[in-house]
Specification:
Elements: H1 2-13, H2 20-24, E1 26-28, E2 42-52, E3 62-66, E4 69-73, E5 77-88, H3 93-111, E6 136-139, H4 149-155, E7 163-171, E8 177-181, E9 197-203, E10 214-217, E11 222-225, E12 231-235, E13 240-248, E14 251-260, E15 269-270
Parallel strand pairs: 1-2, 9-15
Antiparallel strand pairs: 2-5, 3-4, 4-8, 5-7, 6-7, 9-12, 10-11, 10-13, 13-14
Length: about 270
C-alpha cells in the first residue's frame, strides 16, 4: 500500500499542470540521511510516521445491499501517513539554497491545491479497489509539541527547509463479511406490567415456527405444548432467572437461560440442528 501511495504522490508531482521546476525535479522516497547525495535536483518525500487517525475511527458496520439481504463488514481503519518534504540541489553556495528554496516553495504551492488526491492520480491498490473515502491531504501542519531537532539529529544532517505532508488512507484489516437476510416483516409482542406472563415462541434456524414442541419451565416444574405458531406462555410466575427447556422431534433438546422481568416478558427459543 505504501509503495502505491509513493507512486500516487509521484503522479501528482508529475502532473502536466504542475510547475516546470516541480515536474523536472527527480522524486525520491529514500531516507535523507548523511549518506544521501542525489545526482540532480531532487524532491525527497521521506515517509517517517504512520499512525491511526483516532478522530476518524468509526465502529459502525458498513452495510451493502445485495439480493434479498445485506452484507455487513467491519469498517476500515483510517491511517495518517506523514512525509517530510525537502528539496536538494547539486549546486553550491547561494545557488544551491536558491534552487532548493524555489523547488520547495513551488511544491508547497502545488500540493496546497489538493485537499484530497484526485482519483486519476491514485495508483495500484489505492485505485483498485477504490478507496472507500476521499484520500485527504494535509500540507505543512505540525502537531502541537512536535520538535524537529531530534529528527534531524537522528538523520545525522543539519536542519533543512522542509514541510510535512500527511495523506489519510483507509485500510481494511478485517476482510470477513456477514450476510443477513432482508427484514420483510416486523412482529411486535409484549405484555402488561399489571398482568405479566412469561411468553415466547419456539423457532427454527430460519425463524419459522416449530409446532408441537414441549417447553418446560425448569425451576417452576411446569411445561406446556406450543400452539400452531410456536407460541407458549407461563402465567403467575414470579420475576427472576429461569431455564427454558425445549423438546421436539427433529431437533436436539435446547435450553435457554432467561431473565424474566416486568419490562422483559417475551423470550423466544431458537432451536439448533436440523
Amino acid at each position: 500500500m505504501f509503495d502505491d501511495l509513493d507512486a500516487s504522490l509521484a503522479a501528482v508531482l508529475d502532473d502536466p499542470a504542475a510547475p516546470a521546476h516541480v515536474r523536472t525535479a527527480d522524486v525520491s522516497f529514500a531516507v535523507p540521511d548523511k549518506a544521501y547525495t542525489p545526482g540532480q535536483a531532487t524532491l525527497n518525500l521521506f515517509l517517517h510516521e504512520v499512525q491511526e487517525n483516532r478522530a476518524l475511527r468509526d465502529d459502525t458496520p458498513v452495510l451493502e445491499r445485495v439480493a434479498q439481504g445485506y452484507v455487513s463488514r467491519r469498517p476500515p481503519v483510517r491511517v495518517d501517513c506523514t512525509y517530510l518534504v525537502t528539496a536538494w540541489s547539486t549546486k553550491t553556495g547561494g545557488l544551491q539554497s536558491a534552487e532548493e528554496h524555489q523547488i520547495l516553495g513551488l511544491t508547497l504551492q502545488w500540493l496546497c491545491r489538493f485537499p484530497v488526491l484526485d482519483t486519476g492520480h491514485l495508483q495500484g491498490v489505492l485505485q483498485t479497489p477504490p478507496q472507500p473515502f476521499p484520500v485527504a491531504v494535509t500540507v505543512a501542519q505540525r502537531r502541537e509539541g512536535q520538535s524537529m531537532g531530534e529528527f534531524w539529529t537522528a538523520l545525522g544532517i543539519a536542519p533543512r527547509p522542509a514541510f510535512s505532508l500527511t495523506v489519510t488512507l483507509a485500510m481494511v484489516p478485517f476482510p470477513e463479511t456477514r450476510t443477513d437476510p432482508e427484514v420483510t416483516a416486523v412482529q411486535l409482542r409484549g405484555g402488561l406490567v399489571s398482568d405479566p406472563v412469561l411468553r415466547g415462541r419456539v423457532l427454527d434456524g430460519a425463524l419459522d415456527a416449530v409446532p408441537a414442541a414441549t417447553v418446560q419451565l425448569v425451576e417452576a416444574g411446569r411445561s406446556v405444548v406450543v400452539d400452531d405458531l410456536g407460541g407458549f406462555s407461563f402465567a403467575d410466575v414470579p420475576f427472576g432467572a429461569y431455564t427454558l427447556s425445549v423438546q421436539t422431534a427433529g431437533h436436539p433438546d435446547t435450553t435457554r437461560h432467561v431473565d424474566y422481568e416486568h419490562d422483559v416478558q417475551v423470550h423466544d427459543v431458537i432451536l439448533t440442528g436440523p
